[in-house]
Amino acid sequence: MSAGVLVLHAWWGLNDDVRAYAERLRREGYVTETPDLYRGHVATTIADAEKLAKGLDGARATADVDGALTKLTGRADRVAVLGWSLGASYGWELAQARKAAVRGLVLYYPGMDDIYADTNPPTLVHFADHDEFESLADVRRAELVANGGPTAQFYLYANTKHWFDEPSRPEYDKAASELAWQRTTAFLDTHLRR
Fold first, then answer.
1. What distance separates the 2 farthest-apart alpha carbons in the chain?
2. What strands, in cross-sheet order, belong to the sheet with 3-8?
3. CB of 79 within 8 A of CB of 5?
4. What mean pLDDT comes out for the span 108-130?
5. 56-81: b or e for each residue (b if 16 or more CB lie within 10 Å)?
6. Residue 49 in contact with residue 12, Cβ under 8 Å?
7. What is the pLDDT of residue 110?
8. How far apart are CA 33 and CA 83, in angstroms?
9. CA 17 → CA 42, 131, 165, distances in Å?
10. Count of domains for the chain
11. Bigger pLDDT: 179 or 150?
12. Three-class secondary structure of residue 50 per DSSP
């Protein structure tokens, strides 16, 4: 039985960080798809990333993500979605729209609206405790709501900021990133290989 992961980039675009994570998954035996929502454009500054995100055609991006999932399900029997920030939002929407196809959902610092639904597949969520985009109070509220069901796991990483899992960013925290990756791969193994 084959296992696949749809890997969805943050608002920077399909950069080397995301490509490296996809390659790590491939080395661990997963089939991957990494759709490029910006069609070749990559940002390195917050201003450029904001411009790319604001210019993103949401309907087209949703279609790109859906098409990548369709392609992946043709190559893998069991599929999960892994996304960072912007990619987490598209991943969550995809999991709602394609419930039968998505066996697990891993979200790194998603928006709060992304985790209130009670129809998520098994979900693993990684948050920074000093996130300028998501308040800790909102994270705690979301954790309480999501933990009403048996399928959500929340982790808060001490002394980290948004983008703590992205090696090209100054906010990168190696220890937190490695711990989050261990939890991510354990989660994927549980839901895709057992």
1. 43
2. 31-33, 3-8, 78-84, 104-108, 123-128, 152-157
3. yes
4. 74
5. beeeebeebbbebbeebbeebebbbb
6. yes
7. 82
8. 12
9. 11, 20, 9
10. 1
11. 179
12. helix
Q: Give the C-alpha separation, 145 to 140, whole Å.
A: 9
Tracing tokens 């308040």 back to the chain, one arrives at: 135
Query: In residues, how long is the chain?
Result: 194
How many CB atoms within 10 Å of residue 157?
21
pTM given for the model: 0.90
- How far is residue 142's CA from residue 130's CA, in Å, rounded to a whole number? 16
Amino acid at 138: D
Q: Structural domain of residue 19, as residue ranges?
A: 3-193
Amino acid letter, residue 86: L
**Residue 160 tokens, joined:** 């980290």
- Reference 20, options 128, 156, 165, 161; nearest CA is 165
Where residue 118 sits, what CATH number does that domain have? 3.40.50.1820
